[in-house]
Fold this protein.
Amino acid sequence: MEKELTLNPFKIVQEQIENVGDVLGLSKDVVEVLKWPKRVLSVSIPVKMDDGSTKVFLGYRSQHNDALGPAKGGIRFHPDVTIDEVMALSMWMTLKCGVVGVPYGGGKGGVACNPKEMSQGEIEKVARGYIDGIWQFIGPEKDIPAPDVYTNPQIMAWMMDEYSKLKGYNVFGVITGKPLLLGGSEGRNMATAIGTLYTIREGVKVVGINLKGATVSVQGFGNAGFFAAKLLYDDGAKIVAVSDSKGGIYSEEGLDPYKVSEHKKKTGSVVGFPNTKEIGPKDTLTIPCDIVVPAALENQITTENANEVKAKIVAEAANGPTTPEADKIIAEKGILMLPDILTNAGGVTVSYFEWVQNNYGYYWSEEEVLDKLERIMVNAFKNVYEMYKEKKIDMRTAAGAVSIKRVVDAMKLRGWV
Ligand code: GLU
């Protein structure tokens, strides 16, 4: 078995960029520009906790490249957040925006904290403290955050409110993924999963399987994973396994994600759902099925388990779930990889729509949003698939090539390289 070279997402994305540079025949110096974020800010956030103690949380915001427009990307609240992870995620955002062609560069933020062990009041203080630390760094024309792992519309509302207070007027366009009443967009909450569904619909066509009746396993039952399971189930797929951070469940007969979600709301986990076999959170990736949807964190498909993946399609709703060595194994096994920067780009695409609507102060119907999203996703898939066929490279490198070509052309036009 090949040894994993690194699990550091920053090193991984640098390697992916080098691969794309080779395919596009880019010069070493242009690749070097792309291998580093343009700006990274690190902040400490002291918070008076409910028990009267003061705790310091560390937060980061990375802006990778703004050749095509302001930086864009989510903010995650997770105990494992590091500066390297945030930098890597900001670079994947540049690639993602380039694949779907939304006029943004990549940004990402994170605070190392565990919202599962914090009260709502404490989470609000971290959210406001984070904005107090980074507000001069962001703005509707500079850098526009959004939700990511363990953050949600309520947290976006607090952040928008804090930024607006600092500016002295309402700035809805500073952040996306907000509640509908505060300038959010129809369709945003489900957008990542809807984009994943649209990509899978195209993927099954080229692999030659029918989504109706196809068996699906989903790792992660948060915003992306839960909605992906629900939408695929509504499309006629059979959801045979799902998992969250506490564990997984398997049922050969298939699961009803709506009922599993009710169970999770009551008990805090998908585990224990009646008439299912309990499995580990990572077993969802290797269970026999047609389509695997990693929708949790980075580094889930590695050299340790890539050989065990039995699906015909891996559709990455998460960011960075597959390591480069595992990617090679997946490709050798003839599995179609639908890479993160394409498959989960529905979220940032509807964020773009939200920002446009905020700038206009005029709001669209859900039908209008989804119609525009579908066209963008189908077109992005087509561009990536053509690149994959033409250059005979893997789908991830193909997606990167579609994207980086745009970014580099923009940098050249601006005279940066
Ligand atoms: N956090 C999401 C992502 O990783 C959404 C980013 C956004 O909407 O700006 O793509």
